[in-house]
């Protein structure tokens, strides 16, 4: 048993990251354990977690399990959790209620919890005490060890907890079963060292560790050869890519080398404003296959709050960067993340945030009420706002954000734009895909266009999506 520990999770040493190239192996004893059995995997959280789930699926399938879309049919149920806000916590415990109920009639079902919540001390304590229906708990650092953890739990017939609060390694050979045949997630770095005072990620994901450029480029080249049209380069702070490698190679270089693989579309998330350098901007502007879409989290428009958050930029610096991006990358869509009601946020601070939104007129924004996370500095700061005030601020912010999102979308009406058709639309008989600027479009199109970038005329515009026709 290994329990998570927040104090250890915080530690950052100068030790070089280990790159492990041959650590994944399903023990012979576990090779066929899933034969004739099904797995159900539910994923919460960011793209990083979505991609981790693609690794978990591959590992389960290596053990013989096949995928089930419903939990009721499954022999093994896994929940890949997110710890970013309190509501994630509630979702997980709600889900476990359903598992417990299922296990009353089928005792042999195996239930596992993994992901960022498994890295939280308080969560694992709670699971160990009250939730006997959970058989295995493992964290973000040892996904590749799932077969071994499962084996231990089956052998000992008891709850197996294997969570490591370490800085972390880079594992190169974990198998992956991608959800899409058109677009792929590609990790370029893991972890985060920014320690924004509200955020749990540096504790749940370890230190910032970049993959070697050649490993990333080779993965992209293989994807191109297998027919993939789009890659999204993933990291908590992609702009800081390479800084931990001790070689003279930055995100700008990586974007350029990725562009040269000739893959149709390149995206990247997330960009911390702090590390966005000119080289990166120039490369995005230069290559047509790097999409003109940037997610640039603001968090707050108040310098005082930004400082308390530990974001290391001012409103002025943010706007300077924003304007530079808009100037140098024509047609560039910019979206953002904003937190309201951070401890100590006054009405004036909140107005500063609205001010920035009114200036930037974002294409869209994810907005959140601040949620204290145990172990982060923010959780110790006093918050005098009532629930009502917090909700009012979120509501006001959303009104402004939605107004500009709508305006941005309306500009597309009647225009012809490139869309990569990546799947079936929820609306029957249509396909769906995204414009280069990341707008969701439902398209009247024949299935033969699936997986292709097509020119689409936008015929109708809604707040969150558009309709279109192939031209
Ligand atoms: N690495 C990214 C953010 C990842 S988390 C970045 O630095 O931009 C995604 C978003 O969740 C954050 O941008 C932030 O807006 C929000 N978030 C993170 N912690 C939060 C908390 N404790 N309460 C509310 N929102 C939070
Ligand atoms: Fe969290 Fe800040 Fe790191 Fe983003 S940069 S993951 S918000 S600590
Ligand atoms: Fe959530 Fe972990 Fe991602 S906390 S947002 S799943 S890195």
Task: Provide structural commentary.
- The structure is a single chain.
- The protein has 471 residues and is an alpha/beta fold.
- It is 33% helix and 21% strand.
- The chain contains 13 helices and 21 strands.
- The chain has helices at 6-10, 47-62, 86-105, 121-130, 146-156, 201-205, 213-225, 251-259, 278-286, 303-309, 315-328, 347-360, 387-410; strands spanning 19-20, 38-43, 66-67, 76-81, 110-115, 136-138, 160-162, 170-171, 183-187, 189-190, 209-210, 230-234, 265-269, 293-295, 333-340, 364-369, 416-424, 431-435, 440-444, 453-461, 466-470.
- The chain has a 6-stranded parallel β-sheet, sandwiched between helices.
- The chain starts with 5 loop residues before the first helix and ends with a strand.
In short:
This protein is an alpha/beta fold and 471 residues long. It has helices at 6-10, 47-62, 86-105, 121-130, 146-156, 201-205, 213-225, 251-259, 278-286, 303-309, 315-328, 347-360, 387-410, and strands at 19-20, 38-43, 66-67, 76-81, 110-115, 136-138, 160-162, 170-171, 183-187, 189-190, 209-210, 230-234, 265-269, 293-295, 333-340, 364-369, 416-424, 431-435, 440-444, 453-461, 466-470.
């Amino acid at each position: 048993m290994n329990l998570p520990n927040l104090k250890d999770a915080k530690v950052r040493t100068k030790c070089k990251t280990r790159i492990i190239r041959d650590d994944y192996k399903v023990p012979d004893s576990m090779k066929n354990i899933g034969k004739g059995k099904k797995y159900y995997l539910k994923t919460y959280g960011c793209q990083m977690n979505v991609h981790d789930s693609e690794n978990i699926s591959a590992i389960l399938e290596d053990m013989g399990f096949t995928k089930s879309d419903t939990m009721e049919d499954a022999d093994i149920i896994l929940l890949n959790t997110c710890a970013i806000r309190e509501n994630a916590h509630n979702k997980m415990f709600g889900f476990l209620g359903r598992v417990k109920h299922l296990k009353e009639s089928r005792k042999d079902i195996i239930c596992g919890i993994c992901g960022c919540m498994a890295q939280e001390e308080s969560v694992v304590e709670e699971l160990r005490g009250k939730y006997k229906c959970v058989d295995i708990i493992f964290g973000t650092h040892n996904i590749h060890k799932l077969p071994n953890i499962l084996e231990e739990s089956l052998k000992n017939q008891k709850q197996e907890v294997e969570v490591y609060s370490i800085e972390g390694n880079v594992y190169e050979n974990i198998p992956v079963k991608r959800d899409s045949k058109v677009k792929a997630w590609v990790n370029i770095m893991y972890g985060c060292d920014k320690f924004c005072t509200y955020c749990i990620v540096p504790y749940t994901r370890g230190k910032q560790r970049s993959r070697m450029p050649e490993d990333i480029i080779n993965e992209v080249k293989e994807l191109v050869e297998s027919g993939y049209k789009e890659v999204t380069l993933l990291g908590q702070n992609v702009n800081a890519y390479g800084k931990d490698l001790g070689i003279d190679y930055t995100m700008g270089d990586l974007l350029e080398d990725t562009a040269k693989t000739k893959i149709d579309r390149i995206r990247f998330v997330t960009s911390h404003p702090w590390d966005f350098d000119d080289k990166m901007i120039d490369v995005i502007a230069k290559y047509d296959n790097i999409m003109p879409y940037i997610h640039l989290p603001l968090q707050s428009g108040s310098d005082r709050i930004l400082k308390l958050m530990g974001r290391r930029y001012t409103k002025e610096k943010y706007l300077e960067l924003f304007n530079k991006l808009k100037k140098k990358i024509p047609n560039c869509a910019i979206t953002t993340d904003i937190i309201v009601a951070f401890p100590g946020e006054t009405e004036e601070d909140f107005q500063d945030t609205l001010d920035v939104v009114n200036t930037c007129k974002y294409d869209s924004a994810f907005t959140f009420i601040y949620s204290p996370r145990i172990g982060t500095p923010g959780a110790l700061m006093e918050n005098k706002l009532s629930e009502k005030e917090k909700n009012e601020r979120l509501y006001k912010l959303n009104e402004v954000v939605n107004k500009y999102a709508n305006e941005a979308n309306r500009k597309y009406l009647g225009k012809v734009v490139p869309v990569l058709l990546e799947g079936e639309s929820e609306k029957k008989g249509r396909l769906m895909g995204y414009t280069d600027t990341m707008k969701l479009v439902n398209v009247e199109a024949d299935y033969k266009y699936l997986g292709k970038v097509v020119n689409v005329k936008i015929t109708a515009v809604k707040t969150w999506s558009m309709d279109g026709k192939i031209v």
